[in-house]
């Protein structure tokens, strides 16, 4: 009876975690996507003398803060627990949104963006440590896809609300920052109520690992003695997945940051149509993520093949997007990029990573992994803005993303083929 009660409680807890983390990503991505559709309004409010490079750097400062926090946050997750990292991080995030809403200069927006990135940087390691340690193995890819779908929902809502409320209805661009701050308060309450304390979490993990070892009749090393080794963190296999994730994130964050502006300035889209069209990438990714992660759970030994195929197809869709000769072709390419791209492949990459990383110290491993991936999010917005200032077009930014995706997929494939041959 006691064993059944424990299992039932654990089952209920991981379902709550999936819903909670999904909503966490919704909140973060509403903020992330809310500013890019209103760059013209931000430029106007700052006096009109702001270049594309300067506007793109708003995202770069956010992602700089986000990247800086990845390894420290991962270490702290393992040391003091997810809850004690999540709560201060989201408090900083909420305060940063309020700071941006009061900004009267681009420098203040940069400062707020940096703080927002530092605050949101607490989320990744905490979130995927929770999924890695609490979700059953046969449901990890699918459950991670549900968590990740919060990114798509938040991105789509941010783009649509920002375009509709600001670009079309004429509300101040700061409106989206107030909405973000309200949602952050709601998430702080939810984290406080639902997420376990560190000691309870570690005890639950130890019980689960002991039960698994007993069921498999194998000896299990005590949880407290396992350590993350530097050589494992930077083995050739892990470096290949860092490169792959860098390329995946580069294409996605370049698109998220500059697609609304690209559609408006280079493809003739106007008003709410900009936000709606750009949000197709996000919304199309939800069925893609759920479908492919379900397949990956069913064919667990095929994760590498799924990852490589999805990355190459996503690169093709980005190429078709930039070469589209009419609006219909462009929108079809965007939908397919969303269906096949980052949010579809990311749950499978994270599930693959979970199989190749130690469970104790998983926060540190995820922090290093996300650090390398998110470095691209610092580079892509500012670089594409610079390309636009020099050439008058953002097309070259799309081509760079396509090349990186192909290079990342090939590197990951070659390393895994080599490892398979050795095995």
Automatic annotation (TrEMBL):
Protein topology in the membrane: Multi-pass membrane protein
Location in or out of the cell: Cell membrane
Domain Major facilitator superfamily (MFS) profile: 17-420
Pfam families: MFS_1
Positions of transmembrane segments: 12-34, 54-73, 85-103, 109-130, 142-164, 176-195, 234-253, 273-292, 304-323, 329-353, 360-384, 396-417
Keyword 4Fe-4S attached: no
The keyword Membrane is annotated on this UniProt entry: yes
Key words of the record: Membrane, Transmembrane, Transmembrane helix
Domain of life: Bacteria
PROSITE patterns xref list: MFS (PS50850), SUGAR_TRANSPORT_2 (PS00217)
Protein name according to UniProt: MFS transporter
């Amino acid at each position: 009876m006691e064993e059944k009660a424990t299992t039932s409680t654990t089952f209920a807890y991981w379902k709550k975690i999936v819903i909670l983390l999904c909503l966490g990503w919704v909140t973060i991505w509403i903020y992330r996507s809310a500013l890019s559709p209103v760059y013209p309004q931000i430029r106007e409010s700052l006096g009109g003398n702001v270049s594309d490079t300067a506007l793109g750097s708003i995202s770069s400062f956010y992602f700089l803060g986000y990247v800086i926090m990845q390894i420290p946050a991962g270490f702290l997750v393992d040391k003091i627990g997810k809850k004690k990292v999540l709560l201060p991080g989201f408090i900083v995030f909420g305060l940063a949104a309020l700071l941006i809403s009061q900004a009267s200069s681009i420098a203040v927006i940069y400062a707020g963006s940096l703080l927002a990135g530092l605050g949101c940087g607490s989320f990744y390691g905490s979130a995927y440590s929770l999924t890695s340690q609490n979700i059953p193995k046969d449901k990890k890819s699918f459950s991670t896809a549900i968590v990740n779908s919060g990114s798509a929902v938040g991105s789509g809502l941010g783009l649509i609300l920002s375009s509709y409320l600001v670009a079309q209805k004429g509300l101040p661009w700061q409106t989206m920052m107030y909405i973000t701050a309200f949602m952050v308060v709601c998430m702080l309450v939810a984290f406080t109520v639902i997420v376990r304390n560190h000691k309870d979490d570690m005890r639950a993990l130890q019980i689960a690992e002991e039960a698994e070892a007993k069921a498999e009749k194998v000896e299990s090393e005590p949880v407290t003695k396992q350590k993350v080794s530097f050589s494992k963190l930077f083995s050739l296999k892990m470096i290949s997945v860092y490169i792959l994730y860098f390329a995946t994130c580069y294409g996605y964050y370049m698109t998220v940051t500059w697609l609304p502006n690209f559609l408006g300035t280079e493809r003739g889209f106007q008003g709410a149509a900009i936000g709606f069209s750009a949000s197709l990438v996000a919304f199309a990714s939800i069925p893609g993520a759920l479908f492919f992660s379900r397949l990956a759970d069913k064919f667990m030994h095929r994760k590498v093949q799924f990852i490589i195929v999805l990355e190459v197809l996503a690169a093709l869709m980005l190429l078709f997007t930039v070469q589209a000769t009419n609006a219909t072709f462009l929108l079809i390419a965007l939908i397919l990029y969303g269906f096949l791209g980052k949010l579809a492949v990311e749950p499978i990459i994270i599930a693959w990573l979970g199989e190749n990383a130690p469970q104790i110290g998983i926060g540190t491993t995820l922090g290093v992994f996300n650090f390398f991936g998110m470095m691209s999010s610092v580079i892509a917005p500012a670089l594409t803005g610079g390309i636009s200032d020099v050439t008058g077009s953002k097309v070259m930014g799309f081509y760079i993303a396509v090349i990186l995706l192909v290079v990342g997929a090939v590197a990951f494939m070659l390393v895994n083929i080599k490892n398979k041959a050795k095995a």
